[in-house]
Write a structure and sequence with these properties.
The protein is an alpha+beta fold. The chain is about 45% helix and about 15% strand.
């Protein structure tokens, strides 16, 4: 069964585990504050397609994974977890995505980044790559759940290959 991008985004927004894993509930002051536009990112339909492609690639290799696609500020656009993927893969994928956003490179290269940048992000783990529109960073895709980060990278690269020509 293939979900529409709208349905997938609604499911993500409604899932309590998503909110608890990635973003805390806004404070009353935050809820009353002006709501600026989102940062630059890819369309939600493209993000869902990329996440599904990455997970399908990993599943074909016998791995149940979570894939997250974030905008240029690291705010989630889409997250898809395979049935049976460990819950912690959501947090790990988000961490990988943030490393990729902050370093503007593969999450595996975080070990080479400025220690001050990496300190709040934790250990560098392979499995995430920036999403680029030409020379502009528009987000990142991260995969978690395979036995190795290198196996996660294969899945993320497959997803990027599928959508790269449509990233604007």
């Amino acid at each position: 069964m293939r979900l529409s991008a709208f349905t997938a985004v609604l499911l993500l927004a409604a899932a309590p585990a998503f909110a608890q894993t990635l973003l805390p509930n806004p404070t009353n002051d935050e809820a009353r504050a002006p709501r600026p536009a989102r940062a630059r990112g890819i369309p939600s339909a493209l993000a869902v397609e990329a996440a599904q492609t990455a997970n399908a690639t990993c599943l074909a290799n016998g791995n149940k994974t979570t894939t997250i696609v974030v905008d240029s500020e690291g705010v989630p656009i889409a997250m898809v977890s395979d049935d049976g993927a460990a819950a912690i893969t959501q947090r790990i994928a988000m961490g990988k995505a943030m490393i990729s956003i902050k370093t503007k490179g593969p999450s595996a290269d975080g070990a080479k980044a400025d220690p001050a940048v990496m300190a709040p992000l934790g250990a560098a783990r392979p499995g995430a790559f920036p999403l680029m529109a030409g020379a502009d960073l528009v987000g990142a895709i991260a995969v978690s759940g395979s036995p190795t980060g290198q196996a996660d990278e294969v899945c993320a690269k497959a997803a990027i290959a599928k959508i790269q020509g449509r990233i604007k």
